[in-house]
Amino acid sequence: MRSETRAALLFLTPALTVLTLFFLIPVGAAFFLSLTDFDIYAVADISNVRFVAFKNYAALLTTPIFWVALRNTLYFALIGGPLTVGLALVTAMMVNSKLARFRGLFRTVFFAPVVTTMVAVAIVFRYLFHTRFGMINFGLEAIGIPTVDWLGDPRWAMPAIIILAVWKNFGYTMIIFIAGLQSIPEELYEAARIDGAGWWSQFRRITIPLLAPTFVFVGIVTAIGYLQLFAEPYVMTPDGGPLDSTLSVVMLMYLQGFRWWSMGYAAAVAFLLFVVIGIATAIQLRLRKDLGE
Amino acid sequence: MKALKTIALHAALLIAAGLTAFPLFWMVSASFMPTGEAATFPPRLLPSQATLEHYQALFTRLNLGRAFFNSTAIALLSTAIALLFNSMAGYAFAKLRFGRRDQIFRLLLAVLVLPAQVAMLPLFLMLKEMGLVNTYWGVIIPMMASVFGIFLIRQFMLSIPTELLEAARVDGASEWSIYWKIVIPLSMPVLVTLAIFTFMASWNDFMWPLIVLTDNDRYTLPVSIANLVGEHVQDIELMMASSVVTVIPVLLLFLVLQRYYVAGIMVGSVKG
């Protein structure tokens, strides 16, 4: 063996061993686990495990609770995702404007929530959303908007979680948009202005098309992240919230697998999550192709 | 016209920045309020008189110092190991020639589509067999190497001139000393970036520590305060102090090393 090949093997071994042993093998094992009735008796004594083929999947797809969790998760991702990306684009354009001063300071403020600990800020928002003493209802009342029982009303619990997620995450996407905006040559805008194009048509015909690859990237990253919703509802609305209105797919997996120890069933939930994420990614890649990328 | 636009833009920026900063501002302010003051109507912006009683309660009666120590130890160990393992693998993919190198690397990138939750159930059972449930190592092990980390390092090291390494090889330097004495010192910026990412990911992580740690004495800060809010949901000021203790370290780290953090996001997004 050439000495460089031997060296490469040595340099790769630690990382690839960790990834194989503690990630790839467990992922494969999860599929087999999902084909068994692994439960609390099997946790105690592995000989209690039986092969049940696709019974867990069949059970899941016929249980209302799975569809509730899936619907909640999709609601969160389909509303929260576009709101996050939209707010990120607006703030990126404001921070990037030639007229703006103190850009670095504004960028830092908008980005700060991204690095905070989700559990900690979810606790903060739990109080901000308090029906009687919370700042959010106080602010709404001050500008004449009717207040709601955010975390206690099944219609408003998920919107509250979406508000937290948008606040926490838009800064990340904003940073990526700023880089995208800066890569658009200034001459394009100048030429458009000479041709008499207004602000809106510059935005629609230059900014949006040239940011298309950035949109696909942030769309996929946001969708993957949002479909894994867990910590926000765990902290803000324990045990699935009012009428299970904030029960997410990952929360269902956690409760089934690690609270009730129905690990075979939970593994099936995890695989269905994987399928949903795969579909979401494929749709966005397809959209990118259709847009003539 | 331009002056008007400038004023409107800054007004919008100030409002947006104010709304963004407000939750963090209120968290800090409420943590200094005397007991009960955050649960009044109309809600207060500032404490009538600042008190440290909640911080004292957290670090004495409620033993949050223990969770702070656990979080710090786990984050530092994870970061040190992840830096070593990922930089070694990233170096091999960037600079060492071996058969099917680029195919293996592409295969590795494909792993990114697998959500971490899928691995969690079998991993838990595995670590249970190994006796690592409810230990630091149980939390650290999945953080020791990451595809993102290897990718980040590789992209940076591609720009190190190969002639430099060849020259050292001709002079008889061992492969390890080329990596350790030439490549690593040249890669400090990307190592700082990866260090911040790993430290923050470990510090902020919730779901996996929640699963693998079963004992109060081993809890990290997020698990500990999520547990605390169950018992002390009425003690708003106390809970805000616990949030401050959890958030401030990572926020400070970010403010100091912001440049490196943003650089990492950029490398991650160009591959899309």
How does this structure look, described?
The complex is a heterodimer of chains A (293) and B (272). Chain A has helices at 3-33, 40-44, 55-61, 64-96, 103-115, 118-128, 135-142, 157-182, 186-194, 199-210, 212-227, 231-236, 249-259, 263-290. With 293 residues, chain A is mostly helical. In chain A, helix 13 packs antiparallel against helix 14 (263-290). Chain B has one domain: MetI-like (MetI-like fold, Orthogonal Bundle), CATH 1.10.3720.10. Chain B has 13 helices and no strands. The longest helix of chain B has 35 residues, at 236-270.
The helix count of chain A comes to 14
Q: What is the C-alpha radius of gyration of chain A, as a whole number of Å?
A: 24 Å
Oligomer: heterodimer
What is the CATH homology-level superfamily of chain A?
A: MetI-like
Biggest sheet record of chain A: none
Mean pLDDT of chain B: 93
**Structural Rg of chain B:** 23 Å
Architecture per CATH nomenclature, i.e. the level-2 architecture of chain A: Orthogonal Bundle
What is the 3D shape of chain A? globular
Shape of chain B: globular
Q: Return residue spans of chain B where pLDDT drops below 50 for at least 5 consecutive residues.
A: none
Q: Architecture of chain B in CATH?
A: Orthogonal Bundle
Count of individual domains of chain B: 1
Quick take:
The complex is a heterodimer of chains A (293) and B (272). Chain A has 293 residues and is mainly α. Chain A contains 14 helices and no strands.
Essential attributes:
heterodimer; A: 293 residues; mainly alpha; MetI-like fold; 14 helices; B: 272 residues; globular
Give the topology.
The complex is a heterodimer of chains A (293) and B (272).
Chain A: H1 3-33, H2 40-44, H3 55-61, H4 64-96, H5 103-115, H6 118-128, H7 135-142, H8 157-182, H9 186-194, H10 199-210, H11 212-227, H12 231-236, H13 249-259, H14 263-290
Chain B: H1 2-31, H2 53-59, H3 64-95, H4 101-110, H5 116-129, H6 136-140, H7 147-157, H8 162-170, H9 175-186, H10 188-204, H11 207-212, H12 221-231, H13 236-270
Helix pairs in contact in B: 1-13, 2-13, 3-7, 3-10, 8-9, 10-13, 12-13
